[in-house]
């Protein structure tokens, strides 16, 4: 039985690509690539879907592959540039294919499958981009895109007769009508809505990441994870304040706090958790206390008592929550009018 490795997100297109190949008697092992920027199964980002549900139903194996620091480096310096925000889509695809190539070598598979559809994404899914991606990954001729294969040059597995080209498809564009019809044919009834892309395509997240990298070219995993939540305020080159917006974000901040951080809250009132990251001076702590009070349910009081935990001690500080002008000027926000 011929073997293939599939890049698998858990979404409709990548699932269908695998099912099309399996229908031709190809043994498929899927790999799901994880990153620090939301394209994984550990959070609620737009492209994070559980990859195991369909694999269990249709009988294919899924392996997880974390791209880790390799991916962070291409986010900072992509050879083929960023998309509209911080998304290095072409470099990302090349990296994923290189990882899949290693799986192919280790397992004795003959080629690689992806669920890419011609014209679906403006940067990485174009007719002139596919060959470049394949060449850069060292896989020219060995990447089969079953959903759009009839619109593309025949691959080596097609030329060798391992794959029947007549049983592949000519899908193109952003409409999912053809995919939905094919899903019904396979009995694939549960699949996620189309994803808008990873967090790097989100303009607010991308702005925060650019700002972080300007001040810290080698951010920690905690710094990166904090970008997902809260209101962010830049106090100095090496000090930032993050304020939770709801209970879930408070819980996230609580889970990320380290011994070197300060954590603030207003006791006796509904309050955000507020974290100070970096070198926290006395003035920074006072300012963080005022910002914490500003977003608490005690914000209408003239003076608010704020609890501060950090540096091995716990103490209280009196803060004035009326700091709207300061909040506006320090907020890390691409659209300054959005202050809520």
UniProtKB/TrEMBL annotation:
Keywords: ATP-binding, Nucleotide-binding
InterPro entries xrefs: NFACT-R_2 (IPR059101), Rossmann-like_a/b/a_fold (IPR014729), ThiI_AANH (IPR020536)
Keyword ATP-binding: yes
Pfam families for the chain: NFACT-R_2 (PF18297), ThiI (PF02568)
Residue ranges annotated for the Thil AANH domain, each copy included: 3-147
Family annotation (PANTHER family): THIL AANH DOMAIN-CONTAINING PROTEIN, TRNA 5-METHYLAMINOMETHYL-2-THIOURIDYLATE -METHYLTRANSFERASE
Name by which UniProt lists this protein: Uncharacterized protein
Natural source organism: hot springs metagenome
Source organism phylogeny: unclassified sequences, metagenomes, ecological metagenomes
């Amino acid at each position: 039985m011929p073997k293939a490795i599939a890049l698998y997100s858990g979404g409709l297109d990548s699932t269908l690509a695998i099912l099309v190949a399996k229908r031709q008697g190809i043994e498929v092992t899927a790999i799901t690539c994880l990153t620090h920027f939301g394209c994984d199964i550990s959070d609620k980002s737009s492209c994070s879907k559980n990859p195991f549900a369909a694999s269990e139903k249709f009988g294919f194996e899924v392996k997880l592959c974390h791209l880790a620091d390799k991916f962070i480096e291409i986010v900072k310096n992509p050879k083929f540039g960023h998309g509209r925000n911080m998304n290095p889509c072409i470099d990302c695809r090349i990296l994923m294919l290189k990882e899949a190539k290693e799986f192919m070598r280790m397992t004795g598979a003959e080629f690689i499958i992806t669920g890419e559809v011609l014209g679906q994404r403006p940067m990485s899914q174009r007719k002139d981009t596919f060959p470049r991606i394949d060449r850069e990954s060292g896989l020219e001729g060995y990447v089969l895109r079953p959903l759009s294969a009839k619109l593309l040059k025949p691959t080596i597995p097609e030329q060798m007769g391992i794959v029947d080209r007549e049983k592949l498809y000519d899908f193109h564009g952003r409409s999912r009508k053809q995919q939905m019809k094919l899903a019904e044919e396979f009995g694939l009834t549960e699949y996620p809505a189309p994803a808008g892309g990873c967090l790097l395509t989100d303009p607010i997240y991308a702005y925060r990441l650019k700002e972080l990298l300007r001040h810290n070219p080698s951010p920690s995993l905690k710094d990166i994870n904090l970008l997902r939540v809260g209101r962010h305020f830049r106090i100095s080159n090496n000090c930032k304040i993050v304020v939770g917006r709801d209970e879930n974000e408070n819980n996230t901040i609580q889970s990320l706090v380290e011994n070197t951080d300060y954590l603030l809250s207003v006791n006796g009132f509904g309050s955000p958790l507020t974290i100070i990251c970096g070198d926290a001076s006395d003035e920074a702590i006072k300012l963080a206390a005022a910002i914490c009070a500003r977003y608490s349910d005690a914000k209408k009081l003239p003076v608010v008592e704020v609890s501060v935990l950090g540096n091995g001690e716990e103490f209280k500080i009196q803060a004035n929550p009326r700091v709207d002008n300061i909040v506006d000027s320090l907020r890390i926000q691409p659209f300054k009018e959005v202050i809520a």
